[in-house]
Write a structure and sequence with these properties.
Chain A: Pfam families: Fer2, Fer2_2. The complex is a heterodimer of chains A (158) and B (772). Chain A is built from 5 helices and 5 strands. Chain B has 772 residues and is α+β, with helices and mostly antiparallel strands. Chain B has 4 domains: 160 residues, Aldehyde oxidase/xanthine dehydrogenase, molybdopterin binding domain (Aldehyde Oxidoreductase, domain 4, 2-Layer Sandwich), CATH 3.30.365; 166 residues, Aldehyde Oxidoreductase, domain 3; 165 residues, Aldehyde oxidase/xanthine dehydrogenase, molybdopterin binding domain (Aldehyde Oxidoreductase, domain 4, 2-Layer Sandwich), CATH 3.30.365.10; 199 residues, Aldehyde Oxidoreductase, domain 4 (2-Layer Sandwich), CATH 3.30.365. In chain B, the strands form 8 sheets. Chain B has a 7-stranded mixed beta sheet with strand order 3-5-1-14-11-12-13, sandwiched between helices. In chain B, helix 5 links the parallel strand 12 and strand 13. The longest helix of chain B is centred in the C-terminal third of the chain and has 28 residues. The chains are: A alpha+beta (158), B alpha+beta (772).
Chain lengths: 158, 772
């Protein structure tokens, strides 16, 4: 397993030339090789969604993808949402609606919601719950997460 | 300029900004130069004799630094009890690595230390265990077996009783008996456990990074177990991705990273994977109750006999028998009960060890007791609410002492108006109209029903907590506390209380917690005690700082102290709205050790505050559920759900509501979806999120919350009661009742979780009984 491969990941606009084993997950590469620790690992088997990132426009679970599969890709993580000190509407809405408690699942929910809104900026409530039910949160009971995403989506349309 | 109250305001949290930006610092994000990674080799067998561990292949692998087995930990204490040594339970403690016997699938048998986490995992996979399999004990309600020579698997009996129970049953109009089971589930936070051990030779300090819940208590017992002085050990609490009672207890893996940091002289990091978590972190809840009630002709309780079997799993962990003891002490809930006898069989099985999970013993006993009240109603032909009303403790009986104990204290309900809250809740829910609507739907063939479950919670366990409040020379305020944050909004709550007392902006207050190097004592975050204990200590410390600031400012401003107030961080004259003012920075500068202005005052604009309490406080509430059942699939849809809760005084209603709604979702998991099940060999069947089903946004209904402040606690100056456990407490109870009602099958639900398969089987069984 020691054969390493040179790859390039562009994360939040920053270029990372790294050398990884083929088996290294994208999540581990983002966190350990590139130092973006905002992406969290909750299950490493693709259910909880805490590791959700956006790879070339597609929301993916970075624990289920190998880093080498993302060679050359442009990746967005939670650290890329804010513009400097200006928070993304989703981040503002999560704070205003008390949509986080421990905050561990939050980066995954933010990226899941960001990707979903980009694909469909006018989701119905049913569509919203359908999308948000793909990630797990253990603190909030989801109600405020749904409220926050709906509020951010409406604001982004305005 | 007037002060507006901060206590009671739903202000945004001060914790949130770094967390939404991905700037949190969880244990997985902590790294030190030259750190090693630990991987645990776990037993794949539920019960067996450990004959040998072959790690030769692993030792030869590049990047592997050391491999330990039980033999390497000769003389190291097993994981001890948080509240101190306990001779009777000592034989049932968990060794850090298994020695001669393995007792559950997932038990640590060897530890591999390697240069990176992937290598450690590779090496661990090559370690082979020679285990002679023994028959496992998987049921706590069957005859006990042998734990070890001379020790039965019934480690102890937990008993409490009062009144003349024989007389109560002798003169009963009716005796109602039930046999009820609560399933095995647990907190399952989204962040798995993790720990980084580091020995700082420069300061001769052993550090545990990734501590949670009770960092100070853990330091105390790490010191005891390692024979090191407490001042040479420090625990550091990073961001914690959910606690729920199970995270932050001291586990074998915590001791391993510390021992390895000392012996290998390198930092050692361990991050658990989810499969490990589901088979090695504390389970909870599993109990079977055989309960009997004696009632008079009007449905008044005369006595309850509560015999139960507590499935502790393979070892007795840090809490000892706390859950079983509380099951004895808290079962009666909000009802008057003249005589009572509890007998708990505290038994070990070959499953993951169990301990506390959010609302421990209340989730279980609320289900059992409320099922009993329903059964009494059925037996006497009374409405379920009427039976409850006839037995509720009334507000003029408060404080209400019951000759029982919980968490080492006598049970004294401090305040409450249970019937008043019931009335308010039914009105808020529109109970009468709602039930009429359900009756009409049932007449059309729909399986719909509603029910009420009542509960008494407990919070704010004492005896004492201390806080230090410091204002530095820039005027910045820091609250230093031994409390802990598990994501509940602790920093915001403490900042609000400090801001209210001191007269500063809550959002500018820095709350430092979970660090044993900053404060000597601390209660941590458990049993919903942080707001009560740390909150009141904060108010006391802040009031002292305020008094000191005003005393100093009076001299600086040449003003009478009783004409001064602190508003938005400035000392102002109350009698001269546009008069002179000075900010807290100026006051703090006047109090530095070298300042002549200080005079005879103690240096520093700072103070310690201690809060002592003789008794914990008992908040109370109820849940109302309206459900629809699909008889064909066994699926339960929750159509409406109301949680009413009297919190005494809410510091931040938005956060209280968040606690209640979030707790409900967890309770729903335990009521319908979540269960740790095992096959007949003791192999765990719930080791992924595909098998252990946590509710998602699709399963969790909208919750109506009725928050009242009718009964402030007389146990503390702020009048507050804890918020952490109200949402989860009676979920199993209320859903069980509502499902009975929906199906029109009295006493149908006798076991949680009510999975679709289990509900379908129960319906078929019930039909079989009634058609026979």
């Amino acid at each position: 397993m020691s054969d390493r491969i040179d790859i390039t990941l562009t994360i939040n606009g920053e270029r990372h030339d790294i050398r990884v084993e083929p088996r290294k997950t994208l999540a581990d590469a983002i966190r350990d090789d590139c130092g973006w620790t905002g992406t969290h690992l909750g299950c490493e088997h693709g259910v909880c969604g805490a590791c959700t990132v956006i790879v070339d426009g597609a929301t993916v679970r970075s624990c289920l993808m190998f880093a080498v599969q993302a060679d050359g890709a442009s990746i967005r993580t939670v650290e890329g949402l804010a513009q400097g000190e200006t928070l993304h509407p989703l981040q503002e809405a999560f704070i205003a609606n008390h949509a986080l408690q421990c905050g561990f699942c939050t980066p995954g929910f933010l990226m899941l919601a960001a990707g979903a809104i980009e694909r469909n900026p006018r989701m119905s409530d049913a569509e919203l719950i359908e999308v948000l039910s793909s990630n797990l949160c253990r603190c909030t009971g989801y109600e405020n997460i749904v409220k926050a995403v709906r509020s951010a989506m409406n604001q982004m349309q305005a | 300029m007037a002060r507006s109250p901060v206590i009671g305001a739903s202000v945004p949290r001060i914790e949130d900004r770094p967390l939404v930006r991905g700037r949190g610092r969880f244990v997985g994000d902590i790294n030190f130069p030259r750190q090693l990674h630990m991987r645990i080799v776990r037993s794949p067998i539920a019960h067996g004799r450990l004959l040998g561990v072959d790690a030769a292949a692993a030792r030869a692998m590049p990047g592997v630094v050391a491999i330990w087995t039980g033999a390497d930990l000769e003389g190291v204490s097993p994981i001890d009890f948080r509240e101190g040594p306990n001779e009777k339970l000592a034989p049932f403690r968990q060794p850090i690595l298994a020695r001669d016997t393995v007792r559950y699938v997932g038990e640590p048998v060897a530890a591999v230390f390697a240069e990176d986490a992937y290598l450690a995992e590779d090496a661990a996979e090559t370690v082979t265990l020679d285990i002679e399999e023994l028959p496992p004990i998987l049921a706590a309600d069957e005859a006990p077996g042998s734990f070890s020579p001379g020790h039965s698997t019934e480690a102890t009996l937990c008993t409490q009783d009062y009144g003349d129970i024989a007389d109560a049953f002798a003169r009963a109009h009716a005796v109602v008996e039930l046999d009820l089971k609560v399933g095995r589930h647990s907190g399952v936070p989204m962040e798995t456990r993790g720990a980084v051990g580091r020995y700082d030779a420069a300061r001769d300090a052993l550090e545990l990074h990734g501590a949670a819940k009770v960092p100070h208590k853990n330091r105390e017992f790490i010191a005891r177990m390692l024979g090191r002085p407490q001042v040479g050990i420090h625990c550091f609490e990073p961001h914690v991705g959910g606690g729920f009672g199970i995270r932050g207890e001291l586990y074998p893996e915590d001791m391993l990273v510390l021992l390895a940091a000392l012996r290998l002289d390198r930092p050692v990091k361990w991050i658990e994977d989810r499969r490990e978590h589901l088979m090695a972190a504390n389970h909870s809840r599993q109990q079977r109750h055989r309960i009997r009630a004696a009632v008079d002709v009007e449905g008044h309780l005369l006595g309850i006999e509560n015999e139960f079997f507590h499935d502790q799993g393979a070892y007795v962990r840090t809490h000892g028998t706390r859950v079983a003891d509380s099951t004895c002490g808290l079962l009666p809930g909000p009802y008057r009960l003249p005589a009572y006898r509890a007998l708990g069989h505290f038994r070990l099985t070959n499953k993951t060890p169990a301990a506390t999970y959010r609302s421990p013993a209340r989730y279980e006993t609320n289900f059992v007791r409320e099922r009993l009240m329903d059964a009494i109603a059925v037996r006497l032909g009374l409405p379920p609410l009427e039976v409850r009303r006839r037995n509720l403790i009334s507000s003029d009986e408060m404080p209400f002492a019951r000759p029982l104990a919980a968490l080492g204290e006598h049970v004294v309900y401090d305040s409450g108006d249970y019937a008043g809250l019931l009335d308010k809740s039914l009105a808020a829910f529109g109970w009468e109209e709602h039930c009429a609507g359900l009756a009409a739907r049932r007449a059309r063939g729909e399986k719909v029903g509603a029910a009420v479950a009542m509960f008494v919670e407990k919070s704010g366990l004492g005896p004492t907590d201390g806080v230090r409040v410091v204002v530095d020379v820039s005027g910045s305020v820091e609250v230093i506390t031994g409390g802990a944050s598990v994501g509940q909004g602790f920093e915001t709550i403490i900042a609000q209380i400090c801001a209210e007392e001191l007269g500063v902006d809550y959002a500018q207050i820095r709350v430092t917690h979970g660090r044993t190097d900053r404060i000597e004592f601390g209660v941590g975050a458990h049993a919903s005690r942080a707001s009560v204990m740390t909150g009141n200590a904060t108010a006391i410390a802040a009031a002292k700082v305020r008094a000191k600031a005003i005393d100093m400012a009076a001299e600086l401003m040449q003003a009478p102290p009783d004409r001064l107030d602190i508003v938005a961080g400035c000392v102002v004259r109350t009698d001269q709205p546009d008069g002179p003012s000075i900010d807290l920075a100026t006051v703090a500068k006047a109090l530095v050790p070298a300042a002549k202005t200080r005079g005879g005052r103690e240096p520093g604009l700072s103070a310690d505050g201690w809060f002592d309490t003789a008794h914990q406080t008992y908040p109370y509430g109820l849940q109302i559920a309206s459900v629809k059942v699909d008889e064909e699939t066994g699926a339960i849809a929750i159509e409406r759900l109301l949680i009413a809760y009297d919190i005494g005084r809410a510091i931040n209603p938005m956060l209280v509501r968040g606690q209640i709604v979030g707790g409900f979702a967890q309770g729903l998991g335990g009521a319908i979806y979540e269960e740790f099940s095992y096959d007949e060999r003791g192999e765990p069947l719930s080791v992924t999120f595909a098998d252990y089903l946590i509710p998602t946004a699709a399963e969790t209904p909208a919750i109506e919350v009725l928050l009242t402040e009718d009964a402030p606690s007389p146990c503390n100056p702020l009048g507050i009661k804890g918020a952490g456990e109200a949402g989860i407490s009676a979920v199993g109870a209320v859903i069980a009742s509502a499902v009975d009602q929906a199906l029109g099958m009295d006493g149908l639900v006798v076991q949680l979780p009510l999975t679709p398969q289990r509900l379908k089987a129960a319906i078929e069984r019930h039909r079989g009984i009634t058609t026979r």
